[in-house]
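Why this split exists: single-chain examples teach little about how molecules sit against one another. For that reason, every record in the complexes split bundles all components of an assembly together and asks for one structure covering all of them. Below is a record exactly as it appears in the raw files.
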Amino acid sequence: MKDNRKGRRVVVTASERVSMLPPYLFAEIDRQKEAALKKGMELIDFGIGDPDMPTPEHILRAARDAVEVPAYHRYPKGTGSEFFREAARNWMREQFGVAVEDGLDVGAVIGTKEGLAHVPIFFCNPGDIVLVPNPGYPVYRASAILADAVPVDLPLQRENGFLPDFGAMAREVVAGTRLVFLNYPNNPTGAVITLDQIQRIVEWARREDVLIISDNSYSHIRFDGRPPASFLQIPGAGDVCLEFHSLSKTFNMTGWRIGFVVGGTNLVRAFMGAKENIDSGVFTAIQKAGEAALRSNIAGYFDIYARRREVLVAGLKKLDWDVCDSPGTFYVWVRLPRGTESMTFARKLISHTGIIVTPGSGFGTFGEGYVRFALTIPEDSIHQAVGRLEQKELYSHRIKAWLKKGMK
Ligand code: PLP
């Protein structure tokens, strides 16, 4: 109840919802990083999934030209400019063979993070269950909490190829589920999904009346020689699916904040219509850059990630590390020996070797016992990291000893 007495000290707090958000787990790693830097250690940072290569020149050129156009300095069109939406439709057709005309629609988002974070607010009623992959991108859980929905873990386990097992979920949970977040190629595990598996998930979602939110942010970063896959390749999937595409990782554009949502017309319109109450769209000059990106060939830098991956995976395997070796994304997911706590391991790894990895516990309880390496540093640095683990006798022994005994 409000206390209106004069002279009282006013303490305004954030909502209960906000207090339920998970704490920032990487503060400890940041502290270790600073301590190592102070000691003069040279760090090798596999922590951040942010491409180190610049945005390609033709995209920069499109942005430079567009910035000069006065009409683009005004409020953008909320759903995205027609030229950007047309480029997105064209992308879906060329990359996935999906015709966006047929009962499907697209809209621009300010990066997929923004789009994904708003989904539960727009589609859930209080108390609805949202299935969140665990381990998974932390935004899914946070967005469910902010919508007064109930996040429930969807365990991704190694023995299932880090794919969901809906058959193992309790009936009451499935009955109360409004939507499920799925992300393939997957952060952090690197797992990919086949069209057959997608088909079965779409059938399940139809049967159970669940909305699939497919986060396809890493669609083209896969090293299994297969083409990228979209949930919308399954006929009729648009009735139960919204899919998010990001330009961030595909075109080295994380700072630009642009992506798009595609799915059934009703779903996309409901999503974009609600979103218009919150933001005013993506700066039109950036949509021009996005158009240039979506109309260009995918650059050869995926080969660069492939080489980096080979160097790291081969190096770690040589040292008997248990690498999951999944073929997607620019992450390498590594199992620690039984009983090894990922935060303790990551902390020790920094202080003993200057190598930074992300503890799996940051992605959820099922990420405990794993660490993630992001391949967003040059190949030379990866060689150097492997060298540090392999050649510095002291470090190599210590790490081997930890791996053998586990760490307390
Ligand atoms: N989804 C996943 C799984 C991610 O890992 C990330 C970024 O790391 C995003 C979405 C956010 O991408 P964007 O830059 O398009 O907001």
